Amino acid sequence: MADPERTYHVNGELCPASEATVSVRDRGFMYGDAIFETLRAYGGDIFRWDEHAERLHNSAARLELEHGLSSATLRDRIDETLTANSLDDAYVKCSITRGVQPGKLTPDPVTDPTVVIQVAPLPRGGISGTQPWEGPATLQTVKTRRISDTAIPSNAKTHNYLNGILARLELRPTDADEAIMRDQEGNLAEGSTGNLFFVRDDSLCTPSLSGPVLPGITRSVVLELAAAEGIPTRVDAFDIDDLHRASEAFVTNSTWEIRPVDTADGIAIGSGPVTALLRRLFSKLVEEECYR
Amino acid sequence: MADPERTYHVNGELCPASEATVSVRDRGFMYGDAIFETLRAYGGDIFRWDEHAERLHNSAARLELEHGLSSATLRDRIDETLTANSLDDAYVKCSITRGVQPGKLTPDPVTDPTVVIQVAPLPRGGISGTQPWEGPATLQTVKTRRISDTAIPSNAKTHNYLNGILARLELRPTDADEAIMRDQEGNLAEGSTGNLFFVRDDSLCTPSLSGPVLPGITRSVVLELAAAEGIPTRVDAFDIDDLHRASEAFVTNSTWEIRPVDTADGIAIGSGPVTALLRRLFSKLVEEECYR
């Protein structure tokens, strides 16, 4: 069951995690007809809340899921949940579904969305603390391709997560712990839960958002930091050979922040000065923005 | 909320529909990490149970969702639910999720799957009864393309249904009530909730399963009936022009059975002798198999 010690927030009310449920008729359960954001709380503050709120807004627009909740209301509920759990440093997941509607696939206008906030303690890793990942990532290119933008827009963050799960299942017979997914044309897209960066010829490279790539908040922060530091960046189409020949690589998401890569398809890549610098700059930014 | 008069079946127990819930940590809710079948009960019997049980088994295999429940157990639960609701003619949805697992995307072996059976009254339409659809379908080709087999296998029936929902959302500004979805190459695939058939040059045509097409049980029954009746069939790749020039068309799924098509992209198509014959044969088959 859900962590019995935690308090979640469901439809405007705090409740014990063990009692946090949704109807089996909820469209979030029946169809994954839901949007979400994964956030980090540092020192009781939400890192880059505005960007997350904007992406949630965009996800809702893509799905025409007009839930009617303001960003301020959502933020209040998140803060309330953190307070109820006495958590300053935490993982936060905020989901909004189209709720329970009459039994047909075509959605009705949303009159009663389901809003769920889950939290879990997650100490800040920073540079030298305990990281939320077990060591650097070992990557494996998988056969499962990223869903094309023409089928589900990749800039919507939704509860339809089987594509990434199928990618992770391919890792079962391997030693790898993160999948590298390509688009239909064979270009690098992203990991199953994060964006991909690598260093080649002294440039920081990451697949462009013109492919089926989630516009990660951590991804944009990393690009921002690199620009400010004068690190040359290439946001472009890349293939698997580009990654294999990289001198450094890392994967990013809000939970992991910047997670170095050890190997890709068995090829040693490892960390290096660019990764180390960006991790240091990221940590400093978190301190500046959240621990004022 | 769910229909308060109904009784559902959740994790081995009958319960009022209003109390049928899953944890917000259930992978079915968080990721749509779940498989399902939609079934019809006629006269208290499940039409083509063996085929549905086999497809559910295949969906589980594709997702490596080893739930450990036998077909007989599932069938017992379905029968129990129908009895508890005093329903002979009904819609039945049977879902199995990977359950609640520790908070990471990579699935653990399934130790405690969530099994949900929902039912609703659905009188048999037959030839002259009240149909579960409101008149013949008006089809509209949509921009949303079917998810490629390389991203999510189309022969797995899962709770990741946003692709079909996005297709239905495109119909909002139109008069159409079913979307025609194409594959990435532009070939006809299927509707958002059913398979597509049409008649051209006296042949019954339907897109081949080599495209991203769900192997519908009603689809296979229709092909079986056509073969037995000596109706020439073409199971192949088709484009939208083939449909536009059809003399008859219909869409199939377990709920709708055979639903005639009125128009496609505003072009009049309508029913005809092949559709009428197949509907009659289908109805006779249901009588023979379920009302013995």
This entry's quaternary arrangement is homodimer
CATH class of the largest domain in chain A: Alpha Beta
Structural class of chain A: alpha+beta
Distance between the termini of chain A: 37 Å
Question: Globular, elongated, flat, extended or rod-shaped: what is the shape of chain A?
Answer: globular
Number of domains of chain A: 2
Main beta-sheet strand count, sense and barrel state of chain A: 9 strands, mixed
Order of helices and strands of chain A: EEEHEEHHEEEHEEEEHEHEEEH
Largest inter-chain interface?
A: A-B, 56 and 57 residues
Number of strands of chain A: 16
Which blocks of ≥5 consecutive residues of chain A have pLDDT under 50? none
The CATH superfamily of the largest domain in chain A appears as D-amino Acid Aminotransferase, subunit A, domain 2
Mean pLDDT of chain A: 96
Number of helices of chain A: 7
CATH topology of the largest domain in chain A: D-amino Acid Aminotransferase, Chain A, domain 2
Helicity range of chain A: 25-40%
Query: What's the architecture of the largest domain in chain A, going by CATH?
Result: Alpha-Beta Barrel
